[in-house]
Amino acid sequence: MIEAKKYTATGELAGNVTLPDTLFAVSCKNPNALLYEVINMYRANQRQGTVCKKTRGEVIGSTRKIFRQKGTGNARMGAIHTPIRKGGGRAFPPRPKDWYSVIPVRKKRLALKLALSMKAATQTVYVLEEISFEKPNTKQARQLINKIVPEKGKKLLITSCNNQNIVKSFSNLPDVSMDAANRLFAYEVLSCKYLIITADALKQAEEVFVK
Fold it and tell me: What is the model's pTM?
C-alpha cells in the first residue's frame, strides 16, 4: 500500500491518501529495458524529419567551367557546384526521412505505470483537491505550488479537465508543465521531478489506463 500527501485547494496539508496499486505499484521483469524502448520510440516520433540539403545537381548557378583543364597548376575544376567549393552542393546531404514508428498500446501503458510507480517509490507524488480559478492568476498559482513543493525542480501538474483559467494561470511558471489525466505518457512523468495530480484526475487516470 503506497500513500501520498494530500493537499487542499489552498495548499494546506490535509493528510495522506492511498494511491491505487494498479497505477503506482506496478513491476515487470525488465522495467529499465521497457522504459528505454518506449521513450526512445516516443522521442523518435517527435522528430519532424524535414531537414534537407542540396546536392551539387540542385544548386543553382552557372555551369561554366571555372578555368581551362590544363596548364594552370590547379586541380581540375568543372563547375562551382562541386562540394569542395564554397557555395557548392553537399556530397552526401541529409534528406527528408520519416522517423515514426508505432508504439504498442500495451507497452505504452505499462511504461506509464512503471514511471508512476518510480515516482511513488521516491515519494514525489502529491494529491491535490480539485482546484478552480475564477480568472487566470499566475501569482495565486505560484503560491499554491510553493506551498505544496517549495523545493526547486520541474513539476508536472495533472488535471482532469482542460480549464483555460487553470491552464493560463500555470503556463507562465517556467518550472511547471501541465497535462490531462487521459493523455499521460511515460516520458513526461520521468522528465519531471515532482508529480502533482488532482483527486479527480487520479480517478480518471485509473479509469483510462487500468484495463
Answer: 0.84
Buried b / exposed e over 133-166, threshold 16 CB at 10 Å, is beebbeebbbebbeebbeeeeebbbbbbeeeeeb
125/31 Cα distance (integer angstroms): 20
DSSP, collapsed to helix, strand or coil, labels residue 113 as: helix
Beta bridge partners of 2: 19
Query: Tell me: the pLDDT tens digits for 35-53?
Result: 999 999 999 999 999 999 9
Proportion of the chain above pLDDT 90, given as a percent: 77
Q: Which residues pair with 197 in a beta bridge?
A: 127, 158
Give the DSSP letter of residue 12: -
Q: How large is the average pLDDT for residues 4-33?
A: 92
| Cα separations in angstroms, 197 against 34, 90, 118, 154, 194 | 24, 50, 15, 14, 10
